[in-house]
Amino acid sequence: MGLFTMETGKHQSCIDACNKCAQACYECFHACLNETDLNARKNCISMLVECAMMCQMSVSTMAMKGQYSSEHCSLCAKICDSCAKECNMFDDEHCKTCAQACQDCADECRKMASM
User: Fold this and answer.
1) Residue 29 in this model has a pLDDT that exceeds 50
2) What is the mean pLDDT of residues 80-89?
3) Residues 35 and 92 sit within 8 Å (Cβ to Cβ)
4) Torsion angle (degrees, nearest 10) of CA 7, 15, 81, 24
5) Can you spell out the DSSP letters for 38-88?
6) What is the tens place of the pLDDT at every residue in 37-58?
7) d(Cα 84, Cα 98) in Å, to the nearest integer?
8) 82: burial class by Cβ within 10 Å (0-12, 13-18, 19+)?
9) Helices 69-87 and 12-33, interaxial angle, to 10°?
């Protein structure tokens, strides 16, 4: 069940995964800024912000039952996959945790997009 209505209930697991992914990306972004190899992480840091923003937009489109929610979630899955790949290039716990959240979100977004 959605937070306020039954209407978003079938998308709730995707909404939850997107929210978790966005939070993980922002937390990882902050942690990466404090790493000594900041220059090596530039692409990853950029991807973290793009992924978080895309996840937030996906939540919004699903919550309002937007007519392009499926297409949006399909693109979100691609971005989450890319972000997971970037994060997996680093051995930090925050990057590994973020990569897993991104992969989980990508999986949920693919499910949602196929509905």
Assistant:
1) yes
2) 98
3) yes
4) 170
5) GGGGHHHHHHHHHHHHHHHHHHHHHHTT-TTHHHHHHHHHHHHHHHHHHHT
6) 999 999 999 999 999 999 999 9
7) 7
8) middle
9) 40
Q: List the structure tokens of 4.
A: 């306020």
- Say if residue 5's pLDDT is above 60: no
Tokens of 54: 């895309």
Q: What would the two tokens of residue 79 be?
A: 């971005």
Is residue 113 classed as helix, strand or coil in its secondary structure?
A: helix
Region of residue 112 (phi > 0: left; psi between -120 and 50: alpha; otherwise: beta): alpha
68: number of Cβ within 10 Å: 10
10-113, which class in CATH? mainly alpha
3-state DSSP percent of the chain in helix, strand and coil, to 5: 80, 0, 20
Q: Which helix (H) or strand (E) holds 100?
A: helix 93-113
Question: What pLDDT sits at residue 10?
Answer: 80
